[in-house]
Each structure stands twice: as structure tokens, then as C-alpha cells.
Write a structure and sequence with these properties.
The structure is a single chain. The chain is 49% helix and 11% strand. With 703 residues, the protein is of the alpha/beta class. The strands form three sheets. An eight-stranded mixed β-sheet has the order 13-12-11-14-15-16-17-18, sandwiched between helices. The protein is globular, with a radius of gyration of 28 Å. A hairpin with a 4-residue loop joins strand 1 and strand 2. Bound molecules: (S)-3-Hydroxyhexanoyl-CoA. The site of (S)-3-Hydroxyhexanoyl-CoA (3H9) has 26 residues, from strand 6, helix 3 and helix 12.
């Protein structure tokens, strides 16, 4: 069959002929995931090209914005439909004619594995190639763990597979993963590349038969153990990274076909694990959280070409860095030269430290620093498309700033407040344009933490909300849209946990017991170590403003124990150390306070500590859903994972609640309410209703 024009193998795979080169095109927007029809279409198209004597070489390309970005994650958990991906790849790999994958955008997971089945790979200059399965609690399941080490060596492959981080095209070229980097028309270049292979009669063994790059580690298995141990250091509590290491090791000492079988079996095992289910939930929840309900479909984000940040403190400086790092020029505004100089100097120091550690080149650090200007008057916001206020957390001050902003900002500027608790509507009211006002709540350190709570005020215009979300993604954040209430989603739930943590101290636990239960669960740190890190005076101020007390924390503050910055807080810190050490003085204070308040202390087990901390948070999450402050349970999960260190492999508080079972959560909450006399611990109506119906929060998302 002679195909000159594009012909559909099916709806998702097309083919055409360019002279004697067969061009196979995957067309499954948005990311060309390998759904069943794509796999079947590829097998059919490659087989036909193989058997057609008029075809001398085959090029595989993709339509749209990217090469294949992996298996179709939405198919996971459903019975697999043949052909499975490994069969398709094995069939492609066995073809003797030159096969060339033409890669643009991202070749990820099964997409890269597919490209590894071709004998050659060419890539557009901006392409990225990686095996990110580990980020979904998985490992590559279609030969990636065996072919990648054969092509680029086990050491580099191990790094890529365990981290899940992709290589840019240039690095991939240097590693031998890509044969040529192409500027301009990728398809045309790939076809020309294929023609040249034919003309020069160049051939190459399939990747499965390569072994040269494995020789070094095959001769020195102890070195592999060292590399593996280094890779696994940060993989606390996670099953997938260990499985990745094990599989890469097979590339050294297990025959290829046997290793493929083992890889598949391990992949299937991980697919069924709770960890992977949680991580896949987070993948989709993260994307959903940015979608605000009720926004018109055609709403367009405004273009942000420049930004201004008011306040050069820790928060303002961190926010300014986010913009500078994303290539958006930003002006930082302070009230005094001294504060401005200090803020700008800290920013420059942060960038230079990163460069010194090898995180970026010195030139890149300079470029980023060069995108940040300083100013001493609010007038300097006049050209900014987006203004973010990051002044002290005080309503009067914020209102004054917004009233002034109204005078100076461009009419179409987006005005954002970085408040972490305050009423965005009250702030918006001080302007003549409340529709332009939105909350953008960053988390400290703002240049590092991924979460961005985008707070939608009562009057926030749809395109203003869309702009905050869009710019959030552009500066590398995970935006989650929330409504207005005290503390929004994250801090409102954190407050509940804080109250319980304090209550546990009075009832019999010590700070290290409470923190230990949470780190054991997978949090990087517990509430008391976190309080010491952030400064106990911060929470003290908030409580005073709210007119409430936390017995132990307030006493510590009254003693001048503000945490790490004073060397003492809930723990003791030796000079220059950030390691918390239990402190007898604090333990005495806790015991005395219990006695003074007439609370009889008793031992509290790890399990109970966890339930006491986590279930009230879940309960508050249910109220937040009921009040529509968060649109979906997954939004709350995303907030806790990216803003508060909830372990990703436990899927977030609402996902976790479903795994525990809502009836169990409800029953324990009733017991806690009885035991403490605190009626706010009684199950929220939504939680009680779902538990009674035998449902989980996940069933709300599906509606
Ligand atoms: C794998 O390959 C296993 C194999 O080893 C073995 C198999 C046997 N499937 O992120 P975006 C959706 S595991 C289904 O907003 P971007 C996504 O949900 C897989 N859907 O765009 C979103 O939908 P919606 C290994 C997918 O430009 C839309 O596409 N691969 C998939 O910011 C746009 O996504 C990965 O882990 C998928 N694989 O980023 C790659 N990927 O519009 C995962 C995306 O309804 N994907 N969607 O919200 C990514 O990292 C990013 O999506 C990517 C694009 C970088 C590709």
C-alpha cells in the first residue's frame, strides 16, 4: 500500500510516507498518553512498515505539544487490554530497518520506553526525557529499567529512575540517550536523519543487546551498592525507589528477558499498592485543584509581564525570587532604605549560595538577581501587571496598603494579598476595584514551598482568579483555589491540629512523643519542632489577636523561648545546631502545668496520638467542604501535601480518611469529644452523613 497522504490507522495513530521513509504519528491530545488504541495502532503501523518492502526506514513522531508523556494513568487499576506496552516495544525493537524516534516536549515513562525500543533517537532542543514513574509510586514497567542502563550506563540510569527527574535534551545527548539535537522542523530533520542512515547503510544493535556501558559496574558490584544507598537516602517510607534500585541491579546480573519479566511483575505489584494509589490520586488532584468551579470556560488569564512585591522581608523576598527565577522582572518595595538593602542582600545571597552549591551557574544567578529592582515608594507599582502585598500580617496595615495601591496601580493590574489568615473581602473593600483583588497565599520559604493557596474573594473577577492560578503555575507553584475564611484551608486545619497537640501535652505526652508520632507517619517534622523553626512568637501573636491561649506555648514565649532563633523553645538547640534536643525544663513546665490545671497525666500511645492529631483535622476538612471553602476533597489533600509536609504516599488527609474508613474516624471523634468535653470534636455533619451511608470523601469527587 502506498501512503503519500496521512492515513489513520485508527483515531489516535496516523501514518504517511515520505519517499521510502514511513512516518508514524501518535495523535492523542493533550499529552499522547499510551491508551489502548495508541498501543494497538502503533503495533499495527510498525508491523505494516516492517513488512512493506518499499519502506527503508521508520520515523515515530507525535502531534501536538509533546512526544508520548507515558502510559495512560487513567487506565491503571482497570484490567489491561492487549497489546501491553512491552509487547509493542519488543516488536519495534526487533525491526531490522532503521527506526528513529523524533522527540519534542516530554518523552516520559512509557513514552521514553517506547523511544528506547527504536534504534535511534533525535530530539528538539527544548525536549526533556525521563522516567518519572517513581513519582507515582511506581517504577518503569515496559523495559525502562533494563534498556536505559544499557544505553547510558547503570549509574546515570539509576539517578534518573530513582529521582524521576527528566534530562534536558542536551544532557540526554551527552549521556548517549539522544543521537542528534535538532533545531527547526523536527519531523523533517528526523526523516533526513533516517535517510542518511539508509544511504550510509548504518546499522546498530537493538538496545537490549548493548552491554558496553554496563561493564564497569558489572565488574564492581560493590560500587553499585554504594550508589544505590546514596540514592535511597531520601526515600524514607517509600516502596517505589527501593523497587527501582532492585530493578536497575537486574540489568547487571539477570538475563534481559528474565529481567523484563521481573520488572513487569514488580510494576504490577506496585500498581496495586496503597502508596501508588495515593500518589496517583495526588497527581490528578493537583491538576484539579487549579480549576475553580463556576469559572466561564472561555475566561482568559491576563498576561503578567512584570510584577511588584510590597515588603522585602522573608516572605516578600521569597516571592520576588519566584518571579525572578521564572524570568518575570519584579520590583520589591520597602519603606526604608535599610530594610530594602537587607532584603535585596538576602535575595542575592540565596541565589549565590545556590550557585555555589552547583544548583545553577553563577551567570544564571546574576541574571535572576538582575531581574529584581528595589524601590522606596508605592508609586513604583505603576507599571506592574501584578502587585503582591507581603507586609506584616495586620489588617489595618494591609487595608492602608490597598487603599494606596488603588491610587497607583494600573487599571488592569491584579492586586494580590499574601495574607495567611485575614479576610480578603475586607481588604478588597478598601479599593475602588474589589474585582481586581485576590489572595495569593505563599508558604515559607516562598521560593521553595510548592503550594499557593489562591483565595477567591466574594467579588474577585473570573479573569483575575484565572490570572492568579496561571501565574502560579508559571512560577512553579501548585495552585489550589480556596474561599475566604479565617486561615483558609491549610492554616485553619493546622490550628485544629495545634490545639490537639497542646492538649496531648497536658494529658501526658511530651513534645518528642507528639512530634515522633507524626514523623513516624511520614511528616518531615512534628508541630513542636515546626513551631520552634518558624518562631513560637508568630503563633503567640495570632493567638493574642484571637483572644485565646495555648497554656504551654504561651508560657514558653513568656519565658523568651521563641524556638531556634533563641536557642530554646519546645526543645533545646545547641549553638549552631538545628537538631531539637528534649529539654528537662520544658518537661517540668508541662508536668507542673498539668497539675496546676488539675489534669491527671497518663501514658498515651503512638497510635492514639496520631488519631488525636489527624482525625480532628479531617473533621475540620469536612466542615471546609460543607462550607465550600474548598471545592473538592482532593484540593485539601493537595494543600496539605505541598504546603505542610503531609507524606505524598499517604495521599493527603481526606484520602487517608477514606482509607481508614469514615465510620472509624467518626466513632473515634465521638470518643475524643466525650473524653475532652470539647464539642467541636463531634463529627461534622458531612462526615457523619458519609460515614452513615458507608461512603468516603472520594465519592464526592466522583459526582
Ligand atoms: C508509565 O508510563 C508506566 C510505564 O513505565 C509502564 C506502563 C506499562 N495519563 O500536567 P498537565 C493529563 S506511568 C493520563 O496539566 P503540563 C493531565 O491529567 C506514566 N493523563 O500539562 C491533564 O488533564 P486535565 C509516566 C495524563 O503541560 C492533562 O493531561 N508519565 C497523563 O503542565 C495535561 O496535563 C508521567 O508520570 C498521563 N500519563 O504537563 C507523566 N499525563 O487537562 C505525567 C498528563 O484533564 N504527566 N495527563 O487536567 C506529566 O508529568 C505532565 O502532565 C506533563 C505535561 C509534563 C506531561
Amino acid at each position: 500500500m502506498n501512503i503519500d497522504v496521512e492515513d489513520g490507522v485508527n483515531d489516535f495513530v496516523k501514518q504517511r510516507r515520505d519517499g521510502s521513509v514511513a512516518v508514524i504519528v501518535v495523535d492523542n491530545p493533550p499529552v499522547n498518553a499510551l491508551r489502548h488504541e495508541v498501543r494497538a495502532g502503533l503495533l499495527e503501523a510498525f508491523s505494516a512498515a516492517r513488512d512493506d518492502a518499499a519502506v527503508s526506514a521508520i520515523v515515530l513522531t507525535c502531534a501536538g505539544r509533546t512526544f508520548v508523556a507515558g502510559a495512560d494513568i487513567t487506565e491503571f487499576g482497570k484490567p489491561p487490554k492487549p497489546p501491553i506496552l512491552s509487547e509493542v516495544i519488543s516488536a519495534i525493537e526487533a525491526i531490522e530497518k532503521p527506526t528513529v524516534a523524533a522527540i519534542h516536549g516530554t518523552a516520559l515513562g512509557g513514552g521514553l520506553e517506547l523511544a528506547l525500543g527504536c534504534r535511534y533517537r533525535v530530539a528538539a532542543a527544548g525536549a526533556k526525557l525521563g522516567l518519572p514513574e517513581v513519582k507515582l509510586g511506581l517504577m518503569p514497567g515496559a523495559g525502562g529499567t533494563q534498556r536505559l542502563p544499557r544505553l547510558i550506563g547503570a549509574e546515570k540510569a539509576l539517578g534518573m529512575i530513582v529521582s524521576g527527574d527528566p534530562l534536558p535534551a542536551q544532557a540526554a545527548f551527552e549521556a548517549g540517550l539522544v543521537d542528534e539535537i535538532v533545531e527547526g522542523d523536527l519531523s523533517a530533520a528526523a526523516i533526513a536523519f533516517a535517510r542518511k542512515l539508509v544511504a550510509e547503510k548504518r546499522t546498530r544493535a537493538p538496545v537490549r543487546d548493548m552491554s558496553e556501558k554496563l561493564a564497569d559496574l558489572r565488574a564492581n558490584p560493590a560500587k553499585f551498592d554504594e550508589l544505590a544507598a546514596a540514592q535511597l537516602k531520601r526515600a524514607r517510607g517509600l516502596a517505589a525507589p527501593a523497587a527501582c534500585v532492585e530493578a536497575v541491579r537486574w540489568s547487571l546480573d539477570v538475563p534481559f528477558d528474565e529481567a523484563l519479566k521481573r520488572e513487569r511483575a514488580k510494576f504490577v505489584e506496585l500498581l496495586g499498592s496503597d502508596q501508588s494509589k495515593a500518589q496517583r490520586h495526588v497527581f490528578f488532584a493537583e491538576r484539579e485543584a487549579a480549576k475553580a468551579p463556576g469559572l466561564p470556560k472561555d475566561v482568559k488569564a491576563r498576561e503578567i509581564k512584570s510584577a511588584a512585591v510590597i515588603g522585602a522581608g522573608t516572605m516578600g523576598g521569597g516571592i520576588a525570587m519566584c518571579f525572578a527565577s521564572a524570568g518575570i522582572p519584579v520590583t520589591v518595595i520597602e519603606t526604608s532604605q535599610e530594610a530594602l538593602d537587607r532584603g535585596l542582600a538576602t535575595i542575592a545571597k540565596n541565589y549565590r549560595n545556590t550557585a555555589a552549591r552547583g544548583g545553577m551557574t553563577a551567570e544564571e544567578a546574576d541574571r535572576r538577581i538582575g531581574r529584581i529592582a528595589g524601590a522606596l515608594t508605592l508609586e513604583a507599582v505603576k507599571d506592574a501587571d501584578l502587585v503582591i502585598e507581603a507586609v506584616f500580617e495586620e489588617m489595618d496595615l494591609k487595608r492602608r496598603v490597598f487603599a494606596d495601591l488603588d491610587r497607583f496601580a494600573k487599571p488592569d493590574a491584579v492586586l494580590a494579598t499574601n495574607t495567611s489568615y485575614l479576610d480578603v473581602n475586607a481588604i478588597a473593600q478598601t479599593t475602588q476595584r474589589p474585582g481586581s483583588v485576590v489572595g495569593m497565599h505563599f508558604f515559607s520559604p516562598a521560593n521553595v514551598m510548592k503550594l499557593l493557596e489562591v483565595v477567591r474573594g466574594a467579588k474577585t473577577a473570573p479573569d483575575v482568579l484565572a490570572t492568579a492560578v496561571d501565574v502560579g503555575r508559571k512560577i512553579g507553584k501548585v495552585p489550589a483555589v480556596v474561599g475566604v475564611c479565617h486561615g483558609f484551608v491549610g492554616n485553619r486545619m493546622l490550628r485544629v491540629r495545634g490545639i490537639e497537640a497542646e492538649r496531648l501535652l497536658l494529658e501526658g505526652a511530651l513534645p518528642q512523643d507528639v512530634d515522633g508520632a507524626l514523623t513516624g507517619f511520614g511528616f518531615p517534622m512534628g508541630p513542636f519542632a515546626m513551631g520552634d523553626l518558624a518562631g513560637l512568637d508568630v503563633g503567640w501573636r495570632v493567638r493574642k489577636a484571637e483572644g485565646r491561649r495555648a497554656e504551654i506555648a504561651d508560657q514558653l514565649c513568656e519565658m523568651g523561648r521563641f524556638g531556634q532563633k533563641t536557642g530554646k523553645g519546645f526543645y533545646l538547640y545547641e549553638a549552631g545546631s538545628r537538631t531539637p534536643k528534649p529539654d528537662e525544663e520544658v518537661e517540668r513546665l508541662i508536668v507542673e502545668t498539668s497539675a496546676r490545671l488539675g489534669v491527671k497525666r497518663h501514658p498515651i500511645g503512638k497510635e492514639e496520638i496520631l488519631e488525636r492529631l489527624l482525625y480532628p483535622m479531617i473533621n475540620e476538612g469536612a466542615r471546609i467542604l460543607d462550607e465550600k471553602i474548598a471545592a473538592r476533597p482532593g484540593d485539601i489533600d493537595v494543600i496539605w501535601i505541598y504546603g505542610y509536609g503531609w507524606p505524598v504516599w499517604r495521599g493527603g488527609p481526606m484520602f487517608y480518611a477514606d482509607q481508614v474508613g469514615l465510620a472509624q474516624v467518626r466513632d473515634r471523634l465521638v470518643q475524643f469529644a466525650e473524653k475532652t468535653g470539647d464539642q467541636t470534636l463531634m463529627p461534622a455533619p458531612l462526615l457523619a452523613r458519609l460515614a452513615a451511608e458507608g461512603r468516603g470523601f472520594g465519592s464526592l469527587a466522583a459526582k
